[in-house]
Every structure is written in C-alpha cells, then in structure tokens.
Amino acid sequence: MGSLPPTTPDLGPLLARCSFPAPGTPLDCAVSGGADSLALLVLAVAAGCDVTAWHVDHGLREGSGREREVVATAAARYGARFTAVRVEIDPGPNLEARARDARYAVLPAGVAVGHTADDLAETVLLNLVRGAGLDGLAPMLRDTDAGRVQRPLLALRRAEARALCEAEGLVAVEDPSNADPAFVRNRIRHEVVPLLNAVAARDVVPVLVRQAALLRDDADLLDELAAAIDPTDARALAAAPPPLARRAVRRLLTGEHPPDAASVERVLAVARNEVKACEVSGGVRVRRSQGRLFLERP
C-alpha cells in the first residue's frame, strides 16, 4: 500500500467529498499525467487504497514518452505500482471516441478515472446538443458500462485538482488537444460554459450537476417501471406508455453501445404492427411473428 510523503498537506476536506473504496482495497487508477488524473493518484493513496497507476500511450503525438515518465515518477513518489500500455490508433474521423474506446479496452474493469464535476457538466451540455435524451442528461452518475469505470472525484472541481497538484509540486502534463476547437467538447469547455456563466451571472457547473442528479433519479424510476415489460411481447410494448416502451426496447437492443432513437422508434412500429420487420443499427433485423419480436443478428 502506498504512503504519502511527509510534506503532503491535510487532504481530509477533499477526501470527505470523494467516493474511494475502503482502505486497503486494490484500486486501479487511469493516470494520463494531466492534473485531474494526478490528483486522483494522490487522493487514492491518501484514502489508503492499494493503488496501481495505469498509463495508456496512444502514440498520437511526439513526446508521449515524457508523459509516461511523469506518471511513473509520481507513482514511485507515492508508493503506487505502475503499469504502462501502448495502443495504436489510426488517423481519421471520430479520433476522440476511438481513442477512448482503445483506452478502455486495455484498462482493467473497474478502473478509477479522474472525472470531476466540470467534466460531468460539460458532458450534460455535449449530450444536450447531440439530442441524447434523458440518460444523456444524467451521465456519469450511474455507470452504464457494467462496472467498467469508477469516478471517485465527481464531487470535486477541476480547479481543486490543479490546486492540489500545485501544492504537491507535481507538474501536470498539458495535452494540446484539450485546446483544439475541432473537438466539440473543447468548445463547450472554453466557450459555452464561460458564456453560460456570464449569462446566468453565476457558476453553472453546480447547477448542471444538481439537474443531472435529479434526472438520474427520474431515469432510475423509469427503468424500474420498464423492467416489468417483456420487450419481446409486441402487444405489451404497443400498450405501454411510450416512455416505458422506449426504455424496454433500449434494453432489448443494447449491446456494446445503446441504440439510437430512430432504431427504437422503428422497433416500436413493428410492435404496433405498422410494419412487419425493420433493421436497426449494427445490421440487426427485428421481426414480429405471432405477437412476439425476434432479433436476427448478422
């Protein structure tokens, strides 16, 4: 188990707002070398967890080896184990999403990540403009990836993570892609959130986080009610209130990724006997026979 250097200040107030597992629990932490992830490493050790710092090198820019050394040095300083993994990502569209998928593919299940309240608020806005629906407006608060990640720092702010690194004398890696306006999230972070702060004359991040928590409760209730519906029973789907029917269909179709809204509506049209069959994302065909829905996968 790691131990903090004697110069480390009292981290009790920050730890009281984190959600780390019990002391002594093995905890894998994804540490890129940025301020948020370095703060995650420091706080995980301070919480008494048995920490392994995982660094994933995407090989997308020169100098990525230096980032690995930053993490390795920090892990050694705090007594955590260190594991480095390299993944190969081809240039092209959807680079950010493909890099994320490649990263999680090599990280262990249940890995802790350094997402803060600011990341949550930005994701709410990002999903809002993408039309992601209720679940998109309540992200991160309930992991939908079958235990793939933990987010112990969601109650902390990005500025607090940076301040902790400065207090510890840790020089965080600055990823230049975080300032690239080609990524929608960056425009939300650097343009939309500051504009909303100015318009509202307040810090909107806590407001968005509270709204996400309320919507998460609503989504959980709808999921509980929708669980009583057999999504293969066409008559039951057709008779159910649309919000519950949609969630039942999403449960039926969800595989590696959740279905899009258009696919859900096409399946409901089959359940209502408006059409005999349809095709949804992933090449899956859904057909109705004798009052039941059948999925035919390619």
The CATH superfamily of the largest domain is HUPs
Largest sheet: 3 strands, parallel
- Which stretches are poorly predicted, pLDDT < 50 over at least 5 residues? none
Q: What is the CATH level 1 assignment of the largest domain?
A: Alpha Beta
What Rg, in angstroms, do the CA atoms define? 22 Å
Beta-strand portion reads 5-15%
- Indicate the mean pLDDT: 90
Description:
The chain is of the alpha/beta class. The chain has three domains: 12-115 and 151-178, HUPs (Rossmann fold, 3-Layer(aba) Sandwich), CATH 3.40.50.620; 117-138 and 180-226, no CATH class; 228-296, no CATH class. It is 47% helix and 13% strand. The protein has twelve helices and eight strands. The strands form three sheets. A three-stranded parallel beta sheet has the order 1-2-3, with helices on one face. A three-stranded antiparallel beta sheet has the order 6-7-8, covered by helices on one side. A hairpin with a 2-residue loop joins strand 7 and strand 8. Helix 2 crosses helix 7 (158-168), helix 5 crosses helix 9 (204-226) and helix 11 crosses helix 12 (261-271). The longest helix has 23 residues, at 204-226. The protein is elongated, with a radius of gyration of 22 Å. The model has no long low-confidence stretch (mean pLDDT 90).
In short:
The protein has 298 residues and is an alpha/beta fold.
Supply database-style keywords.
Rossmann fold; 12 helices; three-stranded parallel β-sheet; 298 residues
Give the SSE map:
Elements: H1 12-15, E1 26-30, H2 35-46, E2 50-57, H3 64-78, E3 81-86, H4 95-106, E4 111-112, H5 117-130, H6 133-136, E5 149-150, H7 158-168, H8 184-200, H9 204-226, H10 234-239, H11 242-253, H12 261-271, E6 277-280, E7 284-289, E8 292-296
Helix pairs in contact: 2-3, 2-7, 5-8, 5-9, 9-11, 11-12
